[in-house]
Write a structure and sequence with these properties.
Elements lengths: L11 E6 H13 L6 E5 L1 H5 L3 H10 L4 E4 L2 H7 L8 E3 L8 H7 L2 E4 L2 H10 L5 E6 L11 H13 L3 E7 L9 H15 L5 E3 L3 H6 L7 E4 L15 E13 L4 E2 L5 E2 L4 E6 L16 E4 L2 E6 L7 E4 L11 E8 L2 E3 L1 H8 L3 H6 L6 E5 L2
Parallel strand pairs: 1-19, 2-3, 2-9, 3-4, 4-5, 5-6, 6-7, 7-8
Antiparallel strand pairs: 1-10, 10-13, 10-17, 11-12, 13-16, 14-15, 14-17, 15-16, 17-18
The structure holds pyridoxal-5'-phosphate.
Length: 363
């Protein structure tokens, strides 16, 4: 059995290399001016890797702060750093205000109505707001008129404090001229304002050094995606749990989407769409078994996939199959798996399900 050191009871697991994550933080920080604060984005359970472990490693590697989306995510990392170094990107709803204020975190805010709710919930507290401008993402973020109103409200309030201003880029990894337009709009609207100004996500850190400003919010690059200099952090594995020889002409799986063109050795592996293998992977791409690339054949089931291992010598029950990461000389990147699924690396990583055990290593 080729199991890779994980207890034999494990059926599906992710090996998270925190040393690789720290190396990624170091590399990315090296691309930035020394004064730029590095905010590690650990929302969505640290992009599927485990928020607390990733957060701790990123902080050890020199991250200044963390960014999350929800108040529950902020609570999960609360004891790792001072509250004023955790940015809750939000969105917050007015009803979230009491809990948001009590957390003492930096609060992303895109609207006057939410700012008023925060002010009303403030009591004797000063509430640090990061006011968000929409410069062309078209999603959250205040439009220029609302942004001006939001700033006026904060200025006039003795409870709210403008601790930062920010915007989010729509296509930092693919459209330099649109990114430049967004940056220009942001700089014009925030010139001279107090607090941290931040714009850059991973794509901008890697491609637009001029967007670094006072802080950067880095997600996907931490986890090793988006540049060949970065190290993939997560290896996703499951077990060969059944082997059979399918005669030529027999079909495999739901919907009978694959038919054996020859006598085929088929391995059934203990991971499915409930664990994050997208159904779009049906009959697409490969999984590594014994260091060889074995095509995925048939549909993806909730709990299993099937592989053609005819060309892989010596496959045994219990062998580890690698869906992401290295096995021997072969490697599957999240970007590659994403292409097979018709999605992006972000979705591949954040879809990894809760029953996939996370195992951590440090170097
Ligand atoms: C507001 C905001 N900032 C930063 C990030 C990090 O982006 P990336 O993972 O591309 O670095 C995200 C992620 O989607 C985001 O929503």
């Amino acid at each position: 059995m080729a199991g890779g050191g994980i207890a034999s009871g494990s059926h599906r697991w992710a090996e998270v290399d925190l040393g690789a994550l720290k190396a990624n933080v170091a590399l990315l920080r090296g691309l930035l001016p020394a004064a730029t604060r590095f905010i590690a984005v650990v929302k969505a359970n640290g992009y599927g890797h485990g928020a607390r472990e990733v957060a701790r490693a990123a902080l050890e590697a020199g991250a200044w702060g963390l960014a999350v989306v929800t108040l529950a995510e902020a609570a999960e990392v609360r004891d790792l750093l001072p509250p004023e170094r955790v940015l809750v990107l939000g969105p917050l709803l007015p009803e979230d205000a009491p809990e948001a204020v009590a957390g003492r975190h930096l609060l992303g805010c895109s609207s006057v109505v939410v700012a008023r709710a925060l002010e009303a919930a403030a009591g004797e507290r000063r509430v640090p707001i990061h006011a968000k401008l929409d410069t062309g993402m078209g999603r959250y973020g205040a439009d220029p008129e609302e942004f001006a109103a939001l700033l006026s409200l904060i200025r006039a309030s003795n409870r709210l404090e403008l601790a930062g201003t920010w915007t989010h880029l729509a296509s930092s990894d693919s459209d330099p001229s649109y990114t430049a337009e967004q940056l220009e709009r942001f700089l014009a609207a925030t010139e001279g304002l107090p607090g941290l100004r931040h714009v850059a996500n991973s794509g901008a850190v890697l491609r637009h050094p001029e967007a670094a400003l006072d802080a950067v919010r880095v997600g996907i690059a931490l986890y090793g995606c988006g540049d060949p200099r970065l190290e993939p952090v997560l290896r996703l594995r499951a077990r060969v749990a059944h082997l059979k020889t399918a005669p030529a002409g027999s079909s495999i799986g739901y919907g009978r989407t694959w038919t054996a063109g020859r006598r085929t050795r088929v391995a059934t592996v203990t991971i499915g769409y409930a664990d994050g293998v997208q159904r779009g992977r049906a009959n697409r791409g490969v999984v590594l078994v014994r260091g060889r690339r074995a095509p995925l054949v048939g549909a993806v089931s909730m709990d299993s996939i099937t592989l053609d291992v005819t060309e892989v010598p010596g496959v045994e029950l219990g062998d580890a199959a690698t869906l992401l990461g290295q096995d021997g000389e072969e490697r599957i990147l999240a970007e590659e798996a994403a292409e097979w699924s018709g999605t992006i690396s972000y979705e591949v990583l954040t879809s990894i399900g809760t029953r996939v055990e996370r195992h951590y290593s440090r170097r």
